[in-house]
Design goal:
By secondary structure, the protein is of the alpha/beta class. It has helices at about 15-25, 30-40, 50-55, 95-105, 115-125, and strands spanning about 25-30, 45-50, 65, 85-90, 110-115.
C-alpha cells in the first residue's frame, strides 16, 4: 500500500546520519540550550539579536544582546575567534537569528541557530529574565 509517506523509499541509514549530523552542526534547540546553561558550563555565548528594547523587556536567561546591525568585528573583539555563538530572535516567524548567524559566519565566527527563539523558549515552559 502506497501513500505520501511510503511512496518514496527512505534514504539509506548512512545518508540519514549525515543529514541529521549536518543539521545539528547548524542548529540547536531551546531544551539543549537550557540544559547547557543548567550544567553551569554551556561552552557558548547565547546571543539575542533583537533590538535593545525587546531584550530589556524579556530575554532568555544568560543571553547577551547584540542587535544584528551591531555585529561587527570591533564589537566582538572581547571574544576569542573560536567562541561558539548561538543566535536567537523572537521565534519561527522572525529571521533575525538567521541574519545574525549569517553575519557571524561572514566574520569567520562559529555559530549555531537556536530554533524556536523566544516562542520556543516559552513553549518549553522556561522563564525569561526582564519579564514583568
Amino acid at each position: 500500500m502506497s501513500n505520501e509517506v511510503t511512496r518514496v523509499a527512505a534514504a539509506p541509514s548512512a545518508e540519514m546520519v549525515a543529514h541529521v549530523e549536518r543539521r545539528l552542526s547548524l542548529e540547536t534547540d531551546c531544551a539543549d540550550v537550557f540544559a547547557a546553561f543548567t550544567s553551569g558550563t554551556p561552552g557558548f555565548v547565547l546571543l539575542d539579536v533583537r533590538g535593545r528594547k525587546a531584550f530589556a523587556t524579556a530575554h532568555v536567561p544568560g543571553a547577551i544582546n547584540i542587535p544584528v546591525l551591531d555585529l561587527t568585528e570591533k564589537r566582538l573583539v572581547e571574544y576569542p575567534a573560536d567562541t561558539l555563538f548561538v543566535t536567537y530572535c523572537a521565534g519561527p516567524h522572525c529571521n533575525g537569528a538567521d541574519k545574525g548567524a549569517l553575519r557571524l559566519a561572514q566574520l569567520g565566527r562559529p555559530v549555531k541557530l537556536m530554533i524556536g527563539g523566544m516562542t520556543g523558549w516559552a513553549d518549553e515552559g522556561y522563564s525569561f529574565d526582564g519579564a514583568n
